[in-house]
Structures are given as C-alpha cells and as structure tokens.
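Minutes, project check-in

Agenda point 3 was the complex the collaborators sent over. CS summarized: two entities, 700 residues total, and the question is how they sit relative to each other. Sequences were read into the notes so everyone works from the same version.
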Amino acid sequence: MSTATLTPPARPSAAGRLLRRVWRQPLPVRIGGVLVGILVFAAVFAPLLAPYGQNDLDFNAQLQGPSLAHPMGTDDTGRDVFSRTLYGLRIDLAVVLFITYVPLPIGVLMGAIAGYFGGKVDLVISRIIDITIAFPFIVLVIAIVAIVGPGLTGIMIGVPIVAWALYARLARSEMLVLREQPFMLATTALGYTRRRAILRHAVPNLMRSSLIYSTVDLVVNLLLLAGLSYLGLGMQPPNAELGTIIAEGQANLLNAWWITTLPGLVLVVFGVGVGLIGDGLSDGELRGGGA
Amino acid sequence: MTAVAQDLPGVADATTDALLSVDGLRVEFGPADAPLVAVKDVGLTIAPGEIVGLIGESGSGKSLTCRSIMRLIGAPGRVTAGTVDFEGRDVLAMSSKELRDFRAHDVGMIYQDPFSSLNPVMRIGDHLRETLRANRGMSKAEARAEGIALLERVGIPDPERRYLSYPHELSGGMRQRVMIALATASRPRLLLADEPTTALDVTTQAQILDLLTDMRRELGMAVLVVSHDFGVIAQVCDRVCVMYGGHVVETGPVERIYADPQHPYTKALLDSVPDMESAGNPVRREGIPGYPPELTDVLPGCVFAPRCAHARPGCTSVPMVLQPVDAAAPDAGSTACPVRPFSVGGPFDPVAGSPPDPVAVPVSPQPAAATAAMTAAETAARAQTGDPGDLPAPGEARITQPTDQESTR
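CS then shared the predicted structure for the full assembly.
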C-alpha cells in the first residue's frame, strides 16, 4: 500500500487535506460528519445566519407555524424559534464541548497513572473514582448552583468534577493491559523516565477508546444540559438554549408543536451525527491520511 | 575489534576484566515463606565484545536471568540473592536514578516479539528520536539525522521513508532491525537479546543474526543471546551457558559444547536437533523423556536426574555445582554433572554399559530434617495457584528445531 505513495502529489492545504480525509471515510462516518458539520457551522455563524435576534419579540406574529419568514415558526411572544435554536445551539455546543473535553484528559491521565503504577497508587485513585461515580450527580450540580448562582457556570463546574471518573476508569483498565506490552517494557529498558513513558508512550494508546466514549458522552451531556436547563438549573431566561426553548414550548405543545419538536429534532440530528462518527471510530474503519 | 576474550574457567571467576558478571543469582515468585524458585544460583560472565548464548527450554529461567541483568523483573517476581556486577558497579544496589542511567546508556535490550515491541501509534522516527533526545540529549534536527543513520546501519532500505513509517507498515524482520537500532542508539556496551529471532522465519533469522555479529564487530558491543535454538546459538555465539530447571548446567566455548558436551542434558538437547542426515528419515529424533520440572517441584540433588539417561543412584544427592571440565584447560568451561565421562556413545544401558563407578560421585547426603522441610515447602507450593510469571505450560516446553526442518520430521 505504501508503494503507491512513492511519489506524493502536491500537498493540498490543511483544510483541503482534512476535507479529503473526511471524504475517504466509510459512508456512515461521512453522513455523521456532514450532519455535525452543518450544526457546528450553524452554531458558529449563528449571529450571521439568524434572521432575527434571539429575544426579539413580535406581538404581531405569535404562535405562527413554520413559514418562509419563520422557518421554525414563532413562540407565544412572537420570538423566531429558528433564530433562538441557532443561538441556543451555539451556547449548547460550546458548553457541551467544554464539559466533555475538559474532563477527558484529566481522567485519562489519572487512569494512566493508576494503571501504570498499580499497587497503592491504583488503590487510592480507584477508590476516588468509585466515590465520584457513586455520588448523586444532580444533587451535586444543584449544590454547586446554590453556591455560584443559577446559570451555566454551575454546570460547567459540576459536570467535569464527576465526568472525569468514567474516563479514568476506562483508561485505567486499558493501561493495565498496555503496561504488559513489550513496547512499554522497552520504555523502562531504554531508561526513559516514568513521566515520559506515561505521557508520550502510553497515553496516545489510551486516547482511542476515550475518544470513542466521548462521542457517546457528547450526546449524553447535550441531553443533560438541556435537561438541567429544563429543570431551571441551566441557562436562565430569556436567553435561548435548546432545553429552555423546549421547556417553554411545552405549554403550547398541542396547538404549536413546532416550538418543542423542531429544536428537539436538532438535538436528535446532532445525536445521530455524533453517534455515526463514534460508531465509525469504534469499528476501527477510519482511514488514515498518511500512507 | 579487539580479540574476544574467552577466558572463563569457573563461574564467579574473571570478574576483573569482565564487562558483566552475574553471581549466585536467585529469582523467586510467590510468598516469601514458601517461594517458587525460578532461577537458582546462576552465574554468568560476559567479557567486552563477547557474544554469549543462554540456552534452555521454556521455563528454564533463561529469560528471567536475562531480565535480572537490567532489573526488569516485575512484581510478583523478585531477585532474592546474588550480585549483578557491570564494570564494577552493582546493578542490584543502584538507586532508581543510577538504574535509569544504566539502562539508558550501558545496556540495550531486544525482545522476542517484534510485533508488539514497537508502539503502534508512534512512527519509527518518533521511537528513535525519543531515545536520542532523552538519552543522548540531541536536538530535533540532530536526532533526525542520527535516526536515519541508525536505520541505515541496521540495514533498512530507504531509511528516509521508513523514518516516517508506522510499525504496522514494516515486516517482522524490519521491525526487529528497528528494535536493534533503538536498543543500540545510545551505544550500549552490552546488548541483551531475549529470543531475538523466535518470531521470525529462518531466512530473516539468519539476517538478524548476521546483523548482530556485524554490530558486535563495528561497535565492540557484547551480546547476550537468549534462545532455545541451538542453531541460533551456534551461528553467533562464542560461548554458551546451558540452563535447565533454573540452574546453569554447563558452560563453555560453543565448539567444545557441540563437539564434546559434558552434561547429559546438553547432549540430549543436541541429540534432539535434527541434522542433515535425518532429512526425510521417518524415524523420530530422540527426545528427552519426561517433562522439565515445574516450579513447584523441589528436586533434591541434580535437577536433571529424573530425566537423565545416565542417572545413577547418587545423582539425587549431588549438589548443583559447576566444576571445570578439564582442570588443565580452564577455557574449556565447566559442567554441573559430576559423572564424567558419562557414556557418550548413547543412552546408558544398565546391562551392557559399564559406566564409571558411581562411587566417584561426591555425595553429600541431606539431613532427614531438611528433606522433610523441603517436602513441606513443596506441598505448600503446590497449593499455590498463582501464576509464576511468564513461565509457560509444560506442553510447549520442547526444544524447537529450525522451522525449515520441521516438516521433514
């Protein structure tokens, strides 16, 4: 296979390479990539794409169904649901990325240390992991919200405090296998420091499973965020967030289905897209960009 | 390259000019009060630039001996006695910093399985750059140039491109070459090769062995080759230590061991290797009856006695001590078998044979109490279900022949 790349073609730009790389993936991954790509694009450029402000009231257009002027209709105060969904998605994705990918490296590192050293170090870290996982999570978030006040800050503090533990448990179990591999023995035989062995030689091997799990975690966290906002612990009105939009639309579910359903569908599309990518990752079918 | 020193009469001798000298090494597993002893009182010396072979069946303790030299035995195993002396420094007493320094600069190690000894997520170049930067303090650019030079030296074609390859893109032989480049990157004076060719096919095996002898010649590096294959040992080694049941049973120059084995086990081992005359011969090679001892078997006297074709009644009480084969020629090595010459012409025949008088055997009868204690320890050890490390099941404990001759048997 590598003989085919003996004469490499002119190197395209970094973005071009990424696109080409995405395009060479199996079909489900490609579909997932496109879905997530559209949503991320929409979220990033929300202020440019949204036809209205997220809190623009229009009492001449209350509870209108989807139309060209309002692609997702309007809510009971005449706010454009499409614009609110875009702004909500923007906040949601940013928060979800934060609460998923901040705990991930912390967890992987803790798990790698526990697995590499074993013994007492492992015992201490493993018990901390157990306690963290056993702790009633919603109660913890409510407690933190009570301290820092309502809003997304509470979630952004509370979720990472708990979420690292699952990554740590995952990384620890993989590290137990990995440390018996001859190439990890070789890091000792070559006289590397343990720090170097863990960070540069072991952790890259542990990232795969954690990254796959993180795609599930992304969806779970998005739903969690929407759920907490629905409970009033997250984003505070009037600003938009998918959970609050859905919660507010609930009262009009029977006569204005679009307020809850269409933002809900956006959640579903994001979940399906991320799920497809994660599935491709775990099948190990991703095709590299190198040889 | 200077002349290869081949002096080594006894075991613990020649410490003065030896690069490495191991003495009285003992490796145990399991509980301290009823240990499973995998390596018993093993001695070994390697002179600068010398290639020494360590041969034995699976479970004979050869790999553990090899790893002890770098203190690479992981828990549950432990070295409980003996010294490992490298150029006057005691490896077993080193602090963790000294030990790291010793591993980084003085010894290199290559392993049996080249498929898992390279990190799958790192490029070949990353491996080399890591060791060059960590152990030789090179800059990125220097490390790249040196890394490519190292790949070239171990005979990897198109090293510039291979520098950027991932391990899975290379064949087993190429990976083993990369391992050798990696292990020798910091110019160690001793290379430990733990079954370096077992996972490779015969032609690749020969190339890797040639590479090892070339590297010895060019760098003046001593090599310890651990193998269960007499063909491998014969091809590269100056001197051989034969291990059985955790003991060194015979040591000496490779020619002498081949021509005139002085321990029945060595003889049996050589007899079990097919030769050219046996090609196409439907008669099976002479095997060694029985199985190698389990770790839980505590055998009094000679460990090989239960399987030995030349065993005498006194053999169960002789101490496992190496004695010079020929007092007049200290270079000829030593053997742990006191019954010499045992009948070299073939298996001992109690009717026709007239072996040397067993009275000559130095008998040191064990006190009854010691024997009783041993039995108790043995019983306790048998109750153990713990895995004694990497010692394989008796089923695979067989001396393998080169694979090309396997089919002719």
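Noted in discussion: Confidence is low (pLDDT under 50) at residues 1-15, 344-409 of chain B.
Follow-up: revisit at the next meeting once the mutant set is ready.
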